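This part of the workshop introduces the protein records we will be handling. Getting from the letters to the tokens is the skill we practise here. The record below serves as our worked example for the rest of this section.

…
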Amino acid sequence: MQRRLSGSPKSHHQPKMIDAGFATRNGPPIDDTSDILGPQINQRSLCGEEESSPLQLNTSELPGPRAGTTKTTHSSRTTPEKITMPFESQIFSSTTDNSMEEQRIRRFRMRSPWSCSLLMLSLTVLSAVAFFGIVHSYMTRQIDPQGCKTPRMMPTYIKLIGFDTEHTRFASKYGLYLYRERTVDEYTEQDIGLRGVPVLFLPGNAGSYRQGRSLASEASLYFRDVIKHDQEKLNAGTRSLDFFMADFNEDMAAFHGQTLLDQAEYVNEALAYILSLYHDPKRPGRDQNLPDPSSVILIGHSMGGIVARTVLTMSNYQANSVNTIITMSTPHARPPVSFDADVVRTYKQINGYWREAYSQKWANNNPLWHVTLISIAGGGGDSIVPSDYTSLSSLVPATHGFTVFTSTIPNVWTGMDHLSIAWCDSFRQVIIRSLFDIVDVRRSSQTKQRAERMSVFKKWYLTGMETIAERALPQKDPTTLLTLEDNTNSILSQGQRLVLRNFGKRKAPEAHLLPVPPQGAPGKKFTLLTDQIIDAPGGNGKLEVLFCSVFPLQAGHSVSLLSLNMDLSGGSSGSTRLACKGAVEDIINLPASTRSSKFAFDDTPPFSYLQYDLQDLVEHQFVAVVDKATMPSSGWVVAEFSDSSDAVIQTRVGLGRLLGAGLNIRLPAERPMLTEVKIPALHSSLLAYKLRVGKQPCGESAELFTPLLRQYISEPYESKYFVNVKEADINLHGVAPYMPPHLLEGNSVCGVSFQLWSDPSCHTSMELSLHVDFLGSMGKLTMRYRTVFAALPLLVIALVLEKQFQIYDTTGVFIPFSEALDLCLRFSLPIVFLVLSFVATSLATSSSRVDNKKDLYDWRSNATESVIDFTRNDLLLGSQDIFFWFLIPLFGIISIGFCVVVNYVVMVVIYALSTIRRVLTTRRGYIKHDDPRPTAIYPSLSPRQRIINTAVLLCFVATIIPYQFAYIVACIVQLATCVQTSQFANETKSTSHYSFYNYVHSIFILMLWILPVHVLVFAVWVHNLAVHWWTPFPSHHNVLSIMPFMLLVETLTNGNMIPRITSRLRLITSILFLILAAYAALYGVTYAYLLHHIANIVTAWLVGVHFSNSGFSLRNLNQALEGSGFGDDEPPKVDGHVKKLP
């Protein structure tokens, strides 16, 4: 029974003559096609046989190979002997019997591309719920509060026009500016006022040099208001800071490795030019007694920090011209995106150089020995760069740098987003003050020695409670002689706590002495907390804390050696004299926690806190807390020696229990002021928690302060403070995915610790409750795994294409993308994700076993590089934690949903465009009759024209435009092909046309998902054109990287269906798609740029399959160039079924 052509009244009872051109050239048999196709250029078959048009076909029920195939031809040529080839010829006759082959084909009868099975719909809904749950969690839950104030400034930018093409080849693209604050900095056109220490600010990806104005303004104001009037600092070599700013013209270095290298080369040339300005003997204000500067301080924001580190690896780097680098929100550990090969390669070279330098045993072999690097991160509020990537633990030892979060920095105590970290008022004050403390113009390097610089940075950027924090007390000499009455009752008994609720009760200074426990007492620690500012020795404040020893310290010591005398004996003849030291340098500021406190960054005076281990007080017998108030005044102070057995709680709870029952701790009523809870199991950055602190009734006495909580980890240095705490959101930047291991392989993960300051005078118990916040944890996947959602769907697409080609080579029907996806959901995809989950579990297990067997290596050992594998977290989930195996099926479900949504969105777009095209064609004045005659996308182009166009485009790729631009053009052309084939298939209702449409549609889906890899580099190229920078990038002009895609798209525009492969060669197609799928799963996140090249190989194979059955040869190519086609076809006929309107 013959199928009738719908919509064609004249074809109800008579067969049609068809041309095997569009959508069937070199492809499957044209069955169920009773329409006349548009004129095409015929091609020779693989056997050398020439096909002519039209062909008489017997229509039958199903398409596909038939037994007893016969061919009718109108050519006068002799048909050669039939040769069996691996590619199926496209001309078949109807089947005369119901063979097993036909029964097998019936199972794959064409379904509508719009069809959606219940399974696919269910997974899509589940995917949407998971995806939007993650996004909603990221935007609404576990959000760190931010409290940045906007500073005010009056900027002036002086462009250094002398830094021209004579000094750098980038003079026309980049610029160099000097910042001057109006009404503060003195400068003229002849004298720009270079009288300080040079500092160069480097903006980040698409950033502006103006982002450095906040720091520069604060430097000018602070020098005018403070440093200029401090003669001691001026004598110590402190001078103003001359802020220079590099203008990278908003270049996008994060997306393009060559741009990053260009910027680093430019910065080295800028450094040489800046230093030359100071070496000018005619420079006004030049001090002849001071050495000329030989180095510049670098401050980098975002990718500017990577440029700063790259500077030291470049061939044009001038030795020792940089010794201090401060970076803000800079992704040091790994590139933020891996879409460009040059970016990944540059990162590998830079990080390898730094690791190799610090692996040297001797300083003479380390070119970075005098360099200090500080990385500052904004925390969870940074939605551009994951703050995990700012870690230096895999690059720099603790002697040369560290990573710290803004929420840790004293008097800042707030998280920041990617932009506000460059202008936040409280943060910029800390940065500038730290820079003034490391400046020393008496040295040619303009800075203090490396060890001194590191001490300054630790003082300004760390809390003072870290294990690496340095104490000034042991290095100080006594300065104060404290004289007391012999019968004073102000000496507390051993172990007694000092609590003062008010000052000045006696209307005279009064000292309270706490005896220091004898040395050898295990775990003893001194802590003091007050709401007052602790006064320096000799000051006029209300409170002073002294650490004292009995005077004389040694025989022969004279009172004249002590500069200050504090006599509290009241003129008594019998008195005790103590030699004391002040502790002002070791004061730790803590955010005030009262009933009115809301955030740590509230604009209220901070608490003052002192903390010493017993070994730090080995020289002292007493701690003197001196109330110097002469009138009654408010205030309080709590001081005590506590035992670690009472103050530290080491939990043994595992992650499983935390996920289930949580952790509940009851603190006893008689406890130290500071209680610390250590939870080693809580170390992953992918989990978030809720911590609840129970109420603390204080009875009759008013509480001194409300509970203050500090959450901290030691690597990187991240602390968060919660004032007046009742409930706290706990999230951290600990062990994160895709992060390289620590430079010290043996460093163990300590997990999170909580420090709780509570009023011990209340004498009431307190409860702590910690539970996993499952909904809040979902949002932590967004920043850590955002690139997974770009790579893993490619696995699904590759498997779907493999299934489509497998069925097509077997049956001759190229099923729709949705149908193939439905088939994959029932078998291959579950197996693939199950295998990947097993692989992830195996990798985590094997890694943990290896870690347990490894010895500890010192960072200076030459064996470090050979032992540590810094790429071991590049695979799959990028995590060595076996707990997170479930993320693979979760991401798999989301990826499936993405593919379903993208597929139907593309179909909607194609349908809309084809409708518009049909309407526009009708309006041009054509009347469509009974027999549609669709043509190719470019029917007027001959093979010669197409070859010339392709060759010209390839020449442009090789010389001017990057192949990424050609790829985008190819995607647009492929979309146009999809639009036209969709319209043809809907008009003709032809199975062969539907097969061809499904083919071009699936290829477009593949190309569309690889498109993000190219868009970023294309944006860089467009930006360069906008700034009139014409220098091409050699790495992006590889013709072979785009030629297969161009040839395939060109072939599809001519309506050429890919031939079926009937031999074992069809396994090559499956293998190639499986390789693409495997790579997308294993390395798609870390090395995403290779996804294009693997897809390019797959495309090259498909092009080869197309050409293998097209009769392509040098003779045909010569004929094409001479103006003829690949065969001796007759001119296309134009039938009379279409005519112009009168």
In short: The CA atoms of residues 795 and 1077 lie 4 Å apart. The mean pLDDT is 81. The first helix runs from residue 100 to 106.
